[in-house]
Amino acid sequence: MKALSRKVADIAPSATIEISDRAAQMRAAGIDVIGLSIGEPDFPTPAHITRACINALERGETHYAPSPGIPALREAISQKLETENDIPCTPGQVIVACGAKDSIYEAMEATLNPGDEVIIIDPSWVSYEPCVQLSGGVPVHCGVRESDFQVDDSLLEAITPNTKMIICNSPSNPSGAVMNDASLRLIADAATDNDCYVLSDEIYEKLIYGKDHVSIGSFDGMADRTITVNGFSKAYAMTGWRIGYAAAPDPVAKQMIKVQQHTISHPATFAMHGAVAALTGDQQCVEEMRCEFDVRRQYLTGALHEMGYETAPAEGAFYAYVKTGGDDMAVSARWLADAHVAVTPGTAFGTPGWVRLSYAASLDRLKEAMHRIAVLPEK
Ligand code: PMP
Ligand code: GLU
């Protein structure tokens, strides 16, 4: 047979998905694995959101919708971005896609030409680099300062005349760090000075502990070059619904809509009605889940520190990023094999020597996981 796509052959599989699949297989074989490898809220989707979707199904909202999303949802999203995030946005600039992951991919397809460079700030979520590669771009990595996980001048050193986009992800997956004003300013100035786009992935904006979320698209002049991505998976425990969105400058939005028309068309129509209820309904459910994550965060980081581990600043999302001081691949393999605790090695996020633990698991399971790791015999 002729060779398959080199572009796809060259990208890595998703480590987060692969490890959680492995944990699921072990569980199916009767092993009590504690899954801390995938970032997925363990709460049910709030009932009023599910109800709105069921109502939509019963009303017969089972047909094609406008490709960029149903008008009520695009309207609700643009209002949310204007009022909560201070980002100027019309409904026409909003594209609703099958999860934020899809929005990120579409944004890259819409903006990149072969050879265009995209700066990824490590540690970084596993899918940024493959999305850049699939879109014909070239990933260029830089790091954060290890002392506080903020952006420093290494970002400027990574910029070349071919830089087209900088990815900004605050709160960060996997580190949990929240970018301070200086980091956001550095990115905004670098993008402006070098005429680049910023892709701001704000999917964890609601899961933040003791800090305020700031959108880079709200900075003076940045709305024209920022594609703000967000979604429903994390804040509303809607991972399986596959609804995310991007708000982009008009010319980019027009390109993204073309990509969407020829690929997914749009997310499930009835699911979009559920998403309208999520955004326009009572937000107390979001706060309740955030508070519960905060309890787990405090427990988990406290337990890790007691065991002598250093962690990144756990200020947002639902991850503890832990310095292993050794081979992270070996540590995570050992924790899975011997303690039956699944975690994701930092190598998958561009930072070997660290592992990511998700605290989107019950307090009891987190306690059991810490106990199992603590009693592992020294190697
Ligand atoms: N961005 C980040 C940083 C994430 O952690 C995730 C989680 N999968 C996504 C985007 C995509 O989320 P979804 O496609 O479920 O909206
Ligand atoms: N974003 C989550 C994670 O990092 C879900 C899995 C994925 O899509 O990568 O675990």
Automatic annotation (TrEMBL):
Residues 32-373 form the Aminotransferase class I/classII large domain. CDD domains: AAT_like (cd00609). InterPro entries: Aminotransferase_I/II_large, AspAT/PAT-like, NHTrfase_class1_PyrdxlP-BS, PyrdxlP-dep_Trfase, PyrdxlP-dep_Trfase_major, PyrdxlP-dep_Trfase_small. Homodimer. Belongs to the class-I pyridoxal-phosphate-dependent aminotransferase family. Keywords: Aminotransferase, Pyridoxal phosphate, Transferase. GO terms for biological process: amino acid metabolic process. Its EC number is 2.6.1.-. SUPFAM superfamilies: PLP-dependent transferases. The keyword Transferase applies. This is Aminotransferase. GO terms for molecular function: pyridoxal phosphate binding; transaminase activity. Its cofactor is pyridoxal 5'-phosphate.
